[in-house]
């Protein structure tokens, strides 16, 4: 359940709406981001993810609705940098600054002790690149510098927009450890990505939007379970099984040879029992694990009425 | 240099509160200014442009005034050299517009905005840093061009050193030289505000340029209208401070009113820039 233990913790979005030129980019969006876990924010390109994050961070004013970070809009906190750290993209840094200089000015602006700068450079393994200009850093290094900047003030909440871009598999593993470690201290992590397979490795909970509206707000595991899984069966003569399943209205997808088929809507144990009853000899039985990407595509591609497909838990105190 | 990050992060929670100092946006902007190579380069270019143009202005006196240097007074040689402070102003305007505008061009301004309690502090800090840098650069340029002019007056124009030093140290020349430094400082500040208002380097450069053109156009207006407009524009106000505006002329309003005019431009520009920054979405 993604229900906040306290209204003052995490992120709380209620009825958030934003339009540009008559086009509604974010549409009555409501969700909570709980502390203590990594929450992924997913959606196809143009879904309104970045605009939503910008409204949460106080960079963009909402048309209507509210976005609270630790109980109130971020700009209304006495020390917003102490509450939230954010990374909005590697391009949002002055390319002429050195890596150290980038953290230096943020430290000065936020009153952060200089010793913390060295800690963060060490954390993201940029100590030896501290004197290099940001323009001379690789995309992955710039991503890590941006993450260091987000963590510099030791905030309670971090919000990362597409932090996986430019990271190699080792970098993604590193970021997963970093964010899990951060969340395990009871703090809040919200990250957006269109790299769904990578998000699947990092997030504990996902919020999916399309056309600015909520599509799903579930723990990742629950979303996986609720998604229809397929079972691959293999045998010399599957015809009795497949005929029986068709009669029962269960979806089957045999290959041309008749020795392999994919079955949707039944657990493997049910299929096994059915095979025993029908006298069908199986040589293979395996669950086909659907990736988050498949689930995501299924959620965002089906039907015209997006609200019909909304998968979510009720939000305590939600007004929208 | 490795590009592979550590696989196991060090502890994220620090024992002591990392925010232990007083936040200072002025210090933050100064760190940026100091760390950026281009800002340092443009400061050096300011001095070089001032000194070189001083030499050129003095050497072209025979062509522009129709008299050889040997027949030109020391006062004229030195005042010609001081005109090169305007060249420094051009470079400083570019520096100021770039410094404030590049963050909008790259999107780096969001890094500042999401850490700021209020947006007005960012505009003020940029203005303070650019104002300080422009003041130092403009004064240094005024000194440099005075030295250049003095050397040329003593060598090419054949003036006595005692006369050159007397003219260079006279109140009239000092007022002209250091009064002229108000122009690069004010135009640099207006370039900062223009860059914020228009969210671009180009907007920053064009803002003082438009005011300069406006001053020229105002000079072509009938005296009744020009005498109202010209003193209210930054160039006219600076001319009052530097002594270029003569009593009875259309620019003349006196030193104190001129200072108030410049203050009004700076305060008005800062208010407009802050208002725009507060209203903008990023």
TrEMBL record, chain B:
<feature type="transmembrane region" description="Helical">
    <location>
        <begin position="176"/>
        <end position="198"/>
    </location>
</feature>
<feature type="transmembrane region" description="Helical">
    <location>
        <begin position="123"/>
        <end position="156"/>
    </location>
</feature>
<keyword id="KW-0472">Membrane</keyword>
<feature type="transmembrane region" description="Helical">
    <location>
        <begin position="81"/>
        <end position="102"/>
    </location>
</feature>
<feature type="transmembrane region" description="Helical">
    <location>
        <begin position="205"/>
        <end position="222"/>
    </location>
</feature>
<protein>
    <recommendedName>
        <fullName>ABC transporter permease</fullName>
    </recommendedName>
</protein>
<keyword id="KW-1133">Transmembrane helix</keyword>
<feature type="transmembrane region" description="Helical">
    <location>
        <begin position="252"/>
        <end position="275"/>
    </location>
</feature>
<feature type="transmembrane region" description="Helical">
    <location>
        <begin position="42"/>
        <end position="61"/>
    </location>
</feature>
<keyword id="KW-0812">Transmembrane</keyword>
């Amino acid at each position: 359940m993604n229900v906040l233990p306290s209204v003052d913790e995490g992120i709380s979005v209620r009825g958030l709406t934003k339009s540009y030129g008559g086009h509604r980019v974010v549409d009555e969006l409501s969700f909570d981001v709980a502390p203590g876990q990594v929450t992924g924010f997913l959606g196809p390109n143009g879904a309104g993810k970045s605009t939503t994050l910008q409204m949460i961070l106080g960079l963009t004013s909402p048309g209507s609705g509210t976005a609270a970070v630790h109980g109130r809009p971020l700009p209304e906190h006495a020390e917003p940098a102490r509450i939230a750290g954010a990374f909005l993209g590697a391009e949002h840094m002055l390319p002429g600054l050195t890596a150290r200089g980038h953290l230096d000015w943020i430290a000065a602006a936020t009153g952060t002790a200089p010793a913390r700068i060295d800690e963060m450079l060490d954390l993201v393994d940029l100590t030896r690149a501290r004197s290099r200009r940001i323009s001379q850093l690789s995309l992955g290094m710039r991503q890590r510098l941006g993450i260091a900047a987000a963590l510099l003030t030791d905030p309670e909440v971090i919000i990362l927009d597409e932090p996986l871009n430019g990271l190699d598999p080792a970098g993604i593993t590193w970021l997963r450890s970093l964010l899990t470690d951060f969340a395990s201290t009871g703090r809040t992590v919200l990250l957006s990505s269109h790299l769904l397979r990578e998000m699947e490795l990092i997030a504990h909970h996902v919020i999916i939007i399309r056309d600015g509206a909520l599509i799903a707000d579930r723990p990742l595991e629950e979303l996986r379970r609720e998604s229809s899984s397929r079972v691959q069966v293999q045998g010399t003569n599957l015809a009795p099984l497949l005929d029986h399943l068709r009669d029962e209205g269960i979806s089957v997808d045999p290959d041309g040879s008749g020795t392999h088929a994919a079955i949707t809507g039944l657990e493997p144990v049910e299929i096994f029992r059915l095979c025993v009853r029908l006298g069908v000899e199986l040589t293979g039985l395996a669950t086909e694990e659907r990736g988050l990407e498949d689930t995501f595509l299924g959620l965002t591609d089906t039907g015209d009425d997006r609200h019909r497909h909304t998968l979510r838990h009720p939000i305590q105190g939600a007004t929208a | 240099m490795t590009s592979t990050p550590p696989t196991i992060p060090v502890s994220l929670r620090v024992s002591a509160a990392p925010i232990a100092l007083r936040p200072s946006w002025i210090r933050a902007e100064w760190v940026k200014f100091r760390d950026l190579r281009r800002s340092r380069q443009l400061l050096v270019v300011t001095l070089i442009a001032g000194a070189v143009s001083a030499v050129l202005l003095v050497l072209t006196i025979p062509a522009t005034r129709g008299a050889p240097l040997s027949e030109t007074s020391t006062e004229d040689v030195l005042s010609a050299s001081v005109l090169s402070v305007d060249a420094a102003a051009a470079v400083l305007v570019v520096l100021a517009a770039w410094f404030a505008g590049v963050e909008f061009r790259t999107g780096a301004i969001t890094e500042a905005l999401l850490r700021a309690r209020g947006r007005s502090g960012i505009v003020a800090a940029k203005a303070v840093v650019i104002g300080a840098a422009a003041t130092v650069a403009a004064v240094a340029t005024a000194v440099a061009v005075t030295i250049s002019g003095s050397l040329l007056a003593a060598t090419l124009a054949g003036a006595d050193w005692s006369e050159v030093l007397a003219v260079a140290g006279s109140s009239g020349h000092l007022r002209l030289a250091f009064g002229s430094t108000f122009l690069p400082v004010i135009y640099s500040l207006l370039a900062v505000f223009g860059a914020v208002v228009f969210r671009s380097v180009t907007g920053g450069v064009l803002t003082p340029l438009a005011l300069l053109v406006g001053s020229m156009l105002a000079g072509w207006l009938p005296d009744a209208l020009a005498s109202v407009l010209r003193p209210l524009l930054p160039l006219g106000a600076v001319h009052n401070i530097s002594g270029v505006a003569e009593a009875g002329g259309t620019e003349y309003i006196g030193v104190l009113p001129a200072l108030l005019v410049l203050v009004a431009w700076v305060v008005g520009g800062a208010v407009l820039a802050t208002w725009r920054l507060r209203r903008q979405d990023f």
